[in-house]
Amino acid sequence: MNCKKELDMKQTSFKIICLIIWACITVFSGFGDENTTSFETRVLDTFNGDDDSPYIWKTTASRYISVVRNANNEVVQDSSGHDSYYPLLAYVDAWPIAAFGYNREPNAPPIRSFGLNARFDRKGYNWIDLYPVLKEDPDQNPYEIPIPGRVHNMDVWVWGANLRYYIEVYVRDYQGVIHMLRLGDISYIGWRNLRVNVPTNIRQAQRTLPSYAGLTFVKFRIWTQPVERVDNFYIYFKQFKVLTDMFESLFDGNDLSDPSNVERLWSNN
Question: For position 209, what pLDDT does the model report?
Fold first, then answer.
């Protein structure tokens, strides 16, 4: 009798364990793509100024940004007759040797970096935003770069002059919420690769189909600190890239979860 009761208890325990395992599989399967490890590196922009790049970079700045003056101390005006303001932007023939090497082949394509020259009239928490704009957009509206996959971290090479400034990265999630990520301080000398991990609390997937819900890059923001000089400074950027998970689970009918495919199918009817 005792043996039978013991056997029944073992069978009951086994069934409970099976139910727990099944429940765990059911719960996590809907978000399984968020936990994969199929990582790839994708370059969002080389900062090389190539003609085939779909966008260019623009800036806006906070108060006290200086006007541009010529050698005679006269305010320089643009083609529309308006005062020209800092920062000045240019692609320069310079790059981080640690990433691209020193000796270049004679016929190798040129390597450039994106340079920013700025100055403010007052010290303080001044800021400069650096954001992309589509070349084909006549209105030059800010453009948010879609980040492929589910991004794990972001990095960019930045040249610093040992000034007490720091840089932030802004991304937007699928619900339209903008998140700020502290990329790092630039109080160092020369080139350095700055990297930031994307925290898991920023959702990049949803429960319903389509489950993929990627981020978009909004802008960089450079901050100056009140203790630091702002009369004239240079910052350079090179190769902005992400480490991202490109894995997507396949299932019977997964093509019907692709918004572009669904739009094509319904447009035929």
Answer: 64
